Amino acid sequence: MVGRRALRWRESEAAIDQAEPVICPLCERPIPPRAQQSLHHLLPKLKGGARGMTVRLHQICHSAIHARYSEAEIALRLTDIEALRDDPEIARFVAWVRTKPDDFHAPTRMTLGRRAAKREH
Questions:
Q1: pTM of the predicted model over 0.90
Q2: What highest taxon heads this organism's lineage (predicted)?
Q3: Sign of the alpha-carbon torsion through 73, 47, 29, 63
Q4: What is the mean pLDDT of residues 78-96?
Q5: What is the dihedral of CA 20, 29, 58, 9, to 10 degrees?
């Protein structure tokens, strides 16, 4: 006999498998249901965007933004997808990640420039 909790888990797993993938607005690749993903606040929460607009991104795309820019920089000039895509650093990342499978993920390190700037403050 299968318990109710196990049955609900199987049903939710089946729903995930059948769900239509969302498209990552940054890299424009599908986000498969089981891929690592997260919500990105277009205006950082620390800069007043806690209740603002969010977009679902691949986790690697989200991490790439925050590895390169501080909350202040994002709030100042990178508050929409077009601005992010037009940024040279992000554009290089997007060109690279588009060659990877839709569910690709790798740890993302803070860039050297961002680390140096963080140490100065």
A1: no
A2: Bacteria
A3: positive
A4: 97
A5: 20
